[in-house]
Amino acid sequence: MRGPCPVPSRGGDGFGPRAIRGKVFAVTSPGQQLELLAAAQGRLNALAPLLTPLADDFAASGHELYLVGGSVRDALLGARVSDMDFSTDARPETVRRILTRRARAVWDTGIEFGTISAAIPVPRSAAPSLDDDAQPQPEWQVEITTYRADSYDGVTRNPTVTFGDTLEGDLVRRDFTVNAMAVRLLPGGGTEFCDPIGGMDALAEKIIDTPSSPEVSFGDDPLRMLRAARFVSQLRFDLAPRVRESMREMAEQIDRITVERVRTELDKLMLGADPVAGINVLVETGLAERVMPEIPGMQLERDEHMQHKDVYWHSLTVLQQAIDLEDEGPDLVLRWAALLHDIGKPDTRAPKPGGGVTFHHHEVVGAKMARKRMRALKYPKAMIEDVSGLIFLHLRFHGYGDGAWTDSAVRRYVNDAGDLLPRLHKLVRADCTTRNKRRANRLQRNYDSLEQRIAEIAEAEDLARVRPDLDGNDIMEILGVPPGPVVGKAWKYLKELRLDRGPLDPDEARAELKAWWENQQGGN
């Protein structure tokens, strides 16, 4: 990969200090640059079957083509390049015409923003050249956007779209410097790295900064403040001091953003490599107070064991420990439940005789609070029920003691958890944050014991799906009743009996049902 790119360089050979719009960037050493560029070249080589023909087509039409944004950032980091975003000086109609030569399908749903999307088949000859991370697939999804020089009204985040004439003008309007780099794609397969804004320096220093002043950038699009916190989580980068300060001063501007977009950014943050750091950014800057105030609200309370600075830090610890227990990749439901499991504590705090405090029923209150907040953010119903269900159940285990539960209690624990049981196991274990090693070991041993009992009972019974020993048809036949409320009541009674006593043989189940029915008749 050649460099620097032939756009206004402002920096000689590209290795010296660069002052752009009043910002002085630290020097990235030649060795660092070469290492980053080598990583990027390796990733781009795997994509040559896509990039080279596209570059040839655009050059043949007299236009430039650049790979831009997160694609370049990820390539420099040696990560898999998944978002295939391009910029060009060609206008949208021209882009559409060029793409039709190779694409299986072309979409112009984003044409009002200058974006044309396409699905381009992977040549059969290309598959052997793709490494594992390139993920061979039937086709590539690409988005190509005409250079833009947008303006904003300061009320919404929707820009007044204006097409630009230069790559630098297009890059400077982007959210962060690490996303404002480009790779010029030359005909024949050549590439040139383009970095007029100083993105490589920010990448090497692991800093999130804005191309223009953060006040202007966040004023144009307040969602970028949430994106900044999200990149702290995803990339494990830190915020530039001026970015952090602007987020504090402008936090209320996030109210301009729709809850759907807020929710999407929050989920991406939670699925990142370090969501604890991302959440802490939201709290420190005041953004969390605007989008999910229950989280900073936990800072006001200490937990009942008095072992952590406050419930907030305890919850971040639980979140991290839950992440450490994940065995099949990031689990969004588990992560949200871990973070929010104690949000009911501030509302349930009460003094204890002789000193200290209690938080009785905080799991019940917390589940309701989580439901309310997630509904406001328009989460899917299933996810709301899963997260709130885990919060509601997370304290149930503490009644287990040293194996004191009956088999009936174990069955009810499994039945009430249902499909959430594997996550509940992780959440309960993650919730052990005491510094008292003896107590921590006892809690873990007790949960080991509970899991062992669940396994033993499951060997003898179908714990995964506890149902009455008689079905609805059996109930109607035995009692001589038609379909109706009586059948439902009988079914519930038999299920409770099943949970209490385990499986019954058919004759015993019939006898119990008849005895129940006689009692019901006598009560009438």
From TrEMBL:
> Know the name of this protein?
CCA-adding enzyme
What is the species listed in this Swiss-Prot or TrEMBL entry?
Dietzia timorensis
Q: Which UniProt keywords apply?
A: Coiled coil, Magnesium, Metal-binding, Nucleotide-binding, Nucleotidyltransferase, Transferase, tRNA processing
Fetch the SUPFAM superfamilies from UniProt. Answer: Nucleotidyltransferase, Poly A polymerase C-terminal region-like
Q: Tell me the ranges covered by the HD/PDEase domain, including all copies.
A: 307-473
Q: Which Pfam families match?
A: HD, PolyA_pol, PolyA_pol_RNAbd
Q: An example of a Gene Ontology BP annotation on this entry?
A: tRNA processing
Q: From the UniProt record, list the coiled-coil ranges.
A: 433-460
Q: What cofactor does this protein call for?
A: Mg(2+)
UniProt-listed InterPro entries: Bact_CCA-adding_enz_type3_sf, HD/PDEase_dom, HD_domain, HDIG_dom, NT_sf, PolA_pol_head_dom, PolyA_RNA-bd, tRNA_adenylyltransferase
Judging by the UniProt lineage, the source's domain of life is Bacteria
Q: Which SMART domains match?
A: HDc (SM00471)
List, in alphabetical order, the Gene Ontology terms for molecular function in this entry.
metal ion binding; nucleotide binding; nucleotidyltransferase activity; tRNA binding
